[in-house]
UniProtKB/TrEMBL annotation:
Domain Nucleoside diphosphate kinase-like residue range list: 1-138
Single GO molecular function: ATP binding
Cofactor requirements of the protein: Mg(2+)
The species this protein was found in: Aquilegia coerulea
Name of protein: Nucleoside diphosphate kinase
One Pfam family cited in the UniProt record for this chain: NDK
Keyword Transferase included in the entry's annotation: yes
UniProt family annotation: Belongs to the NDK family.
E.C. code: 2.7.4.6
């Protein structure tokens, strides 16, 4: 079953949005397979965002991610990568629709509350980085009202 990596960024944690965000993924019908609150070292943040290292906002992005605790999660379900990005909304909150997390809770691209993997391959890479000891198995397939 497909998995994605979701991170609630420091602003989302400080603003008390952890429960609201988890609620949205749970209510959609996705399964939580990993969850931890953690502080991120600079080198770890740089590794997570290494594909963006040449971008002018990279330094500020790393400072933002290491500025306070983040909530790292793995969510599982059918098409969870693409659907997760829809739940999150467009990167720039000015363009994210109402009803999405960024559309409802953010105004600045540099304080956009949440990260979600952008493809199945990057999800695998990010899950391996953030959850090196693996994730938690449970009987999520026994949900006849969610899964065919
Ligand atoms: P994320 O990785 O956080 O889910 O965001 P994304 O795929 O929607 O966007 P991406 O282009 O990968 O950018 C990663 C994060 O960098 C910050 N950003 N700032 N100041 C800027 O122009 C700018 N552009 C991007 C955002 O926090 C974005 O989520």
């Amino acid at each position: 079953m497909e998995q994605t990596f979701i991170m609630i960024k420091p602003d989302g944690v400080q603003r008390g949005l952890v429960g609201e965000i988890i609620k949205r993924f749970e209510q959609k019908g996705f399964t939580l397979r990993g969850l931890k609150l953690m502080n991120v070292e600079r080198a770890f943040a740089e590794k997570h965002y290494e594909d963006l290292s040449a971008r002018p906002f990279f330094g500020g992005l790393v400072e933002y991610i290491i500025s306070g605790p983040v909530v790292a999660m793995v969510w599982e379900g059918k098409n969870v990568v693409v659907t997760g990005r829809k739940i999150i909304g467009a990167t720039n909150p000015s363009e994210s629709s109402p009803g999405t997390i960024r559309g409802d809770f953010a105004v600045e691209i540099g304080r956009n509350v949440i990260h979600g993997s952008d493809a199945v391959e990057s999800a695998k890479k990010e899950i391996a980085l953030w959850f090196p000891d693996g994730t938690v198995n449970w009987q999520s397939s026994l949900h006849p009202w969610i899964c065919e």
